[in-house]
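Troubleshooting: if your tokenizer reports a length mismatch, compare your output against this known-good record of 245 residues.
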Amino acid sequence: MVYLELKDKVAFVTGGGRGIGRETCILLAKQGAKVAVFSNKQTESEETASYISTELGGEAISLVGDVRKEDDVNKAVQETQEELGSIDILINNAGVMLLKPFHETTVEEWDFVQEVNIRGVYLCARAVVPQMKEKRDGVIINLSSIWGTKGGPDRSAYIASKYAVIGFSKALGEELKPDKIRVNAVCPGPVDTKMMEELAPDVDKENWLQPIDLANVIVDLCLPKMKAVTGTAIEAFGNGRPVNL
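Known-good structure output:
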């Protein structure tokens, strides 16, 4: 008999239409969770939700919006509650990367990276935490980066935002311990995703991780057996290493 450790749990995944987010949605569904796939690209969100429904026989809905916009996030969370139920798991996966020297980075570019990578995490957590506190149960996983643990050239906006994700995760993890809500950050090393292909098409990706490798880490952290882990940052590095693109 196959035991589904997340059966009937409701998961809300940002950036769920492709890459790490898509694989995480699929793996959550395979563990029995009902999945809300939130993305700013409708076709990608619909495809992931459709795959879960038709290929896996799971339950999933497609949601479209911008994690930077409070109204979009609140609307998506409300729709998830109405269609799937109260949210048990939040995966803040949506993110952007900017490769540019600091002195060439515009204010608009800096703000955009911060708004997606940390404001989006804050808005989604803010929308979901009240229902988790009411149940005194929940899991929040925020995607940072190995660059959130170190310095490097040509990515000051990105590194600043990912450091912030780790700090936020540790702070929130401590604050929500009394409510039995676990909060952790995951810090991937190099991952072979569409975003990275667009940023660095010619870089040697030998030993890079695949999206499913990160999905395994993320979903494992959602399982009941991981109840001892909260308020920390997990480096998921594999054999890869950060590269100066």
